[in-house]
Amino acid sequence: MLTDTGAITITDKARDKAHALMAEAGICAPEYFVRVGVKGGGCSGLTYQLDFDNEPQPGDMEFGVEGLKVVCDMKSFLYLCGTELDFSDGLNGKGFNFINPNASRTCGCGESFAV
Could you give all domains of the chain from N- to C-terminal order, each with its CATH number? Predict the structure, then answer.
């Protein structure tokens, strides 16, 4: 896991799940990465975005761990600085989770937040 201050990090479990999903989708080319971001919406004001991409944009911030690159646009990085991406497959919910130290509140579903 990256330890740079302010970096977006990813847990081993999230990394392994992202690799598995990419393999299931037939995405095995090294130019693909996980793009995280933020857009307006949701019950708390801002919504997390997570997708696979292969087209870097000018100003993108890049982070990586063990063969998985995570990319974030600069505007979203202002909201996601220091965030950890995790994956849960437990009884209380299944999916990717953003553990965001900048969020002042989150909605019940955990998909939107406010700063």
Answer: 9-114 (2.60.300.12)
Query: Are 100 and 44 within 8 A, CB to CB?
Result: no
Sign of the torsion angle spanned by Cα atoms 93, 115, 3, 61: positive
Q: What is the CA radius of gyration of the chain?
A: 14
List the chain pLDDT tens, one digit each, 115 residues: 333 557 898 999 999 999 999 999 988 778 899 999 999 876 668 888 999 999 999 999 998 777 789 999 999 999 999 999 999 987 666 789 898 898 877 766 556 667 7
pTM for the whole structure: 0.81
Bridge pairing between strands 112-114 and 105-106: antiparallel
> Cα(24)–Cα(69) distance, rounded to whole angstroms?
18
